[in-house]
Amino acid sequence: MINIKSKREIEILRKTCSLASQTLSFLEQKLRVGMSTEELNSLAHAYITEAGAYPSPLNYHGFPKSICTSKNEVICHGIPDKDTILKDGDILNIDVTTYLNKFHGDTNRTYFIGNVAPEVKKFVKVTYECLHHGLAQIKPGAFTGDIGAAIEEMALDNGYSVVHEYCGHGIGREFHEEPQILHYGKRGTGDELVPGMVFTVEPMINMGKRYCRVLKDDWTVVTRDKSLSAQFEHTILVTDDGLEILTAWEQEPDFS
Ligand code: MF3
Ligand code: CO
Ligand code: CO
Is there a domain that residue 255 lies in? Predict the structure, then answer.
């Protein structure tokens, strides 16, 4: 069942989603070569709880930390750790989900650490464009499959691949609700979009092949071929004539 959010629920979703975005901006300012992902986790935990919210990942199906930090060949669900140190040339995805007034808001971005190689910059930029190409499909009467098809087309045209095993999701009172938003597939398939639906779009794009593997910690998802993986995520509301990005960032990324 896909639930349609009421005006009152949408008001709360705007607040929790905006807190998730602000948390990302705050963490972005703290990024430094030599810091650990555990430090980012502590900063995020303090920021979110001081705002009167709860970090949704913490204890979610046993996840041990407050944010996900996924570096280089880690696709998603990387666990912050004191021994994972940011190095010059790395790429790092930070995924923040906040629970405020009983509603979740979910957003993530991939950041450059120090000086990143030009071909890696291009890869991360295309991943961002994949998200926006997917979002551009959203309006009442379109299908979830239109989003996936647009994303897949852009990724493959650039010689990259789309991870199939993890997808976007409805969000609200639950962290993960229906519908599923695949980041690949065929136009006109899946669920028809209706005003009041709230879901995430969060394509995971690999520089090499699409295949993944979960590490022995049962969380960390990595590329099988050890190629780099990048991701961007927004939570959106389907409106009468298109969409509203509920997790809009204060500043768009600069890929230069
Ligand atoms: N925030 C992730 C998503 O975009 C989910 C993380 S689940 C966790 O759906 F348990 F790893 F935190
Ligand atoms: Co999500
Ligand atoms: Co997320």
Answer: no
